[in-house]
Amino acid sequence: MVDCGRIDVGEVRDEDRLGILNYVMGKKDIKPHDLGVTSQYINAIRHGRRRVSDDLLCKLLSFLTYEKLASLLRGWVPEGNAGRYNKGHCNSQGGPRLPPTPPLNALPTPRRLPTHNG
Questions:
Q1: Which of 24, 79, 113, 118 has its CA 20 to 30 A from that of 51?
Q2: What are the beta bridge partners of residue 79?
Q3: CA distances from 15 to 20, 21, 72, 88 (A)
Q4: What is the dihedral of CA 27, 19, 4, 48, to 10 degrees?
Q5: Is 60 within 8 Å of 27 (Cβ atoms)?
Q6: How far apart are CA 103 and CA 117, in angstroms?
């Protein structure tokens, strides 16, 4: 079964989360109370009013194998950055958890200093 501590659940897209929910509840015959949620919450997710939370996704993943998860995600499994989901202050390698690096286009552009000619 899939261990949430070994994958980066934050990287799983919303449509994939919904597909995992539908698969687990349909094919595995898992009920909302087995997941610790209400049927109203599941209906809100299925109708697009709520999102599959990281906690619920973790519970859903516990019913899947890595192979089935890979097939549901079309071959892609978000591995390697497990520290993001862990609730502690360290990443999976034991070091401090650092904030994500912003993309280059999000950094401020440097200002030119005025030059004195003469």
A1: 79
A2: 7
A3: 9, 10, 11, 28
A4: -120
A5: no
A6: 36
Contact between 12 and 73 (Cβ < 8 Å): yes
For residues 17 and 73, is the Cβ–Cβ distance under 8 A? Answer: no
Give the separation between CA 112 and CA 65, rounded to whole angstroms: 55
Q: Which residue has the tokens 């690096």?
A: 101
Task: Retrieve residue 50's tokens.
Answer: 């709520």
Provide the phi-psi class of 82: left if phi over 0, else alpha when psi is between -120 and 50, else beta.
alpha
Of the two residues 85 and 61, the one the predictor is more confident about is 61
Q: How far apart are CA 87 and CA 58, in angstroms?
A: 13
Over residues 35-41, mean pLDDT: 95
Indicate the pTM of the whole model: 0.64
pLDDT digits (tens, 9 = 90+) for 89-101: 334 444 445 555 5
